[in-house]
Amino acid sequence: MTSTDPQPGTGRPSYGERLAAVTGRRGRLCVGIDPHPGLLTAWGLADDPSGLEVFARGVVSAVGDLVAVFKPQSALFERFGSAGISVLERVLADVADAGALSVLDAKRGDIGSTMAGYARAYLEDGGPLAADALTVNPYLGLEALEPAFTAAVASGRGLYVLARTSNPDSDQLQLATRDGRTVAQTVVDEVQARNDASSDGLRTTSRQAQDAGVGSGATGPFGVVVGGTHGQAELDLSAFTGSVLVPGVGAQGATVADLAERFSVPRLLLPTSSRGVLAAGPDAPALRQAVTALVAETAVLG
Amino acid sequence: MTSTDPQPGTGRPSYGERLAAVTGRRGRLCVGIDPHPGLLTAWGLADDPSGLEVFARGVVSAVGDLVAVFKPQSALFERFGSAGISVLERVLADVADAGALSVLDAKRGDIGSTMAGYARAYLEDGGPLAADALTVNPYLGLEALEPAFTAAVASGRGLYVLARTSNPDSDQLQLATRDGRTVAQTVVDEVQARNDASSDGLRTTSRQAQDAGVGSGATGPFGVVVGGTHGQAELDLSAFTGSVLVPGVGAQGATVADLAERFSVPRLLLPTSSRGVLAAGPDAPALRQAVTALVAETAVLG
Q1: How far apart are the first and last CA of chain A?
Q2: What is the pLDDT of residue A5?
């Protein structure tokens, strides 16, 4: 099991600790809240802000007590402008009220004081859109994201940095190399360096814990996003201690068992299912059944 | 939602044509609307949604008739959640009312139907946040951005794809190579391929225009973002026909004259100044004077 040490200085548990606690109780499943037009229609809802609200809050209402992590997709709220963002604010509050964690999938990335603006929007206490973790994009470099790393660790929040995606043309940029290392591997290594730094001052770092054989070690606050079709063959995650957000389980083919085989660190995986769960709605018992079945599958991840 | 009609079928001028027209009248300056906390304070405003509104709409009110293009920075509106996005909606409407073009600096990037959600938010008629152009992030690959390319060209809008930024650690990803080409150059080349495709069916493509010696050719709808410290030495823009958005002119050191020397295609540059202009406020005559001086400098770009 993981350390329960509080984050140094804050007295609040780190994101890794909070993630370990809730997945320990509820299983290791992340449910994507993706209000696509087609899903709203399938649920008998209008493709407008009121339909969006019924859909997104309905998901949390139906399965909020069963799910460890929810991942709202910001794009599908943004398409309704401020009215959609207002719904997103309420959904994030609902997730917290349900005792689950929220990973806002917004893939933000910028530099300096602009990146600090994103951090303030999504990673600081009291913000209307504060989530437990945020997905970010490393195209401008890992140092450019520093305001987000700093804000996250200061308030017990997390980040998931895009590393390797499963769309067909992702190789072009993500497998480009510099100094013999792919871009995707550089992202993993740079994120891990920040996990190591964030654990300074804790009684036991995850590496020390591993070296000492005292269990699987603490989960770092900073994770990566890796497509389910990619595994250890092309990306070395063996030294990684953050969690690994894997989108598209279920509907897009990969099963949780596939992932457990494909990745060298199955205990860190956070498999995410969106349509695979949401297509069972709007009937709440059917949604609960779909979630329960997927949560049971995640037991293999340990 | 996205029409597959090519630009020639819409009867609306392309983004490149609209950009050429407005910069022909007003000069080639883009003013960044960056409501940083420090700027709001310097203007004597509260760092809250009402201060944000006075600041951002005040900039457009003061210089909207002088400026060809405004670039609101989404992050600095997002930090106030839906209340900030509501202000952004009004700012985008103000920019259109002033006869200027808007480039929303949001650096979005995702895949498939999620990217289509962003396109619907920012690049389609009738959307509350529809801008004349949007900045996007290519980390997931250029094909992943296809819904945005399609939506933009269908409605006479544009995109600026991040290529090469001037922050110190940007080399790590942007100068990684694959098949002998840097990531940044691949972005430029892939964006240009889409400019070429978008001009199919038009009476005269830009290349044909250049070959025929009939002037400098049409401006493609798809541009790139390139930091002002980078020039032709490391990035080949000689075949590029989109516009090149160059942030940070003025406050961060580079002058328009520097850029004209540094880039091989000065006629395509769109120099952007944010703090260099905004620091002159809130006094409207002082803002107008700062803008007028910078616009005069852009005459060197032709």
Answers
A1: 11
A2: 45
Are the beta carbons of A169 and B143 separated by less than 8 Å? yes
Burial of B251 by CB count in 10 Å (0-12 exposed, 13-18 middle, 19+ buried)? middle
- Give dist(CA A87, CA B300) in Å, integer: 48
Q: H/E element holding B104?
A: strand B101-108
Contact A247, A261 (CB under 8 A): no
Enumerate the β-bridge partners of residue B240.
none
Q: How far apart are CA A151 and CA A136, in angstroms?
A: 13
Annotated catalytic residue within B12, B36, B79, B107: B107
| Token pair listed for B69 | 């293009």
Tokens of B86: 């509501």
Give me the residue label for tokens 């890796």: A226
Separation of alpha carbons A141 and B199, rounded Å: 33
Contact between A157 and A135 under an 8 Å Cβ cutoff? The reply is no
Interchain contact, B121 vs A75, CB within 8 Å: yes
CA angle, B220 as apex, B218 and B222 as ends, to 5°? 165
Confidence of residue A103 (pLDDT cuts 50, 70, 90): very high
What pLDDT is recorded for position B33?
98
Candidates B208, B201, B221; CA nearest to B151 is B221
Query: Which of A41, A139, A225, A230 to mutate against chain B (most B CBs within 10 Å)?
Result: A139
Probe site for chain B from A33, A71, A82 (most B CB atoms < 10 A): A82
pLDDT digits (tens, 9 = 90+) for A247-290: 988 766 688 998 988 888 888 999 999 998 999 999 999 999 99
Q: What confidence tens digit (pLDDT) does each residue in B33-62 have?
A: 999 999 999 999 999 999 999 999 999 999
pLDDT value at residue B231: 63
Whether residues A118 and B89 touch (CB distance < 8 A) is answered with: no
Our CA dihedral for A86, A92, A98, A103, rounded to 10 degrees, sits at 160
Q: Is B71 a catalytic residue?
A: no
Q: What is the pTM of this model?
A: 0.93
